[in-house]
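BUG: 3D viewer hangs when loading the predicted structure for this chain

Environment: internal workstation, default settings.
Expected: structure renders.
Actual: progress bar stalls at 90%.

Input used:
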Amino acid sequence: MTGTIALVTGASGGLGTHVTKALLDAGFSAIGLAPRIEQSDFNHPNFTALAAKIDSLDAAKKAADTVISRFGKIDVLAHLVGGFAGGQTVAATDDATFQRMFDMNVASAFHMVRAIIPDMRKAGSGRIIAIGSRAAEDPGPSVGAYSASKAALVSLIRTVARENKDAGITANVILPGTMDTPANRQAMPGADTSQWVQPASVASLIVWLAGDAGKDVTGAAIPVYGRGL
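Structure tokens produced before the viewer hung:
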């Protein structure tokens, strides 16, 4: 593996497969992190599978240390881990669902940025890109826990951008509308998928933000709403 090292969390998901492939195609070396990812998932010489969870700071540090010890650095973090729960009003949402949304959508990012920022600061450069949701700024009924967690993620990443601009680190969050993934098609049969965002479009934006052209963009929450605007 040579060149720019990108760590992709959630690399085996509906968006993660597109992002990992796009980074590899663009000349990045990609380490794909997911609990059950395998080397055979991406047939590319610059891909490395890292089977791991990032459900705690210790787990995130272990994953980051594994990458850094093997490849010397992490230039790009594409943090794609997240989850969705909905269907109930705020008044009817239980504590477990609320906590699960914050664990999946905020705590995972919190752990990862804490794990990688010290080495990025030492290097004097780094790109952090997270996946939020349109719901972070345009919440709707019956998705209160999800919307709140994604809004918190936006605040977290924008704070990271301001805290680390002196070290040449950029941090941005993408806010897609409903994405056209197999999981979403299964969950919403009969939906008008022509209005959905294509994962390849989000992947292309991540590649752009991770490359030289994106060096002046930081602290941004970028809407990608597709035809569903």
